[in-house]
Amino acid sequence: MLHDPTTAVDAVTESRIAAGIREVRAGRTTIVVTTSPALLAATDRVAVLDGGTVTASGRHADLVAADAAYRAAVLR
């Protein structure tokens, strides 16, 4: 489980971390708590939580296109 692993890094480092996570998690379940678009785009599935309840789930790109609240949270 990773909690906002890229909050204190620049965009280049964030992209490198996202690529590393993608490589290391191959064949494994990995839970990442983040609002980072780079990390979210690297996932297979995103679960959106609001008050402890899953309000949406799917691929990052699909959620950005279809869910205004999700889009606002991650594309600030």
TrEMBL record:
<dbReference type="InterPro" id="IPR027417">
    <property type="entry name" value="P-loop_NTPase"/>
</dbReference>
<protein>
    <recommendedName>
        <fullName>ABC transporter ATP-binding protein</fullName>
    </recommendedName>
</protein>
<dbReference type="GO" id="GO:0015421">
    <property type="term" value="F:ABC-type oligopeptide transporter activity"/>
</dbReference>
<dbReference type="InterPro" id="IPR039421">
    <property type="entry name" value="Type_1_exporter"/>
</dbReference>
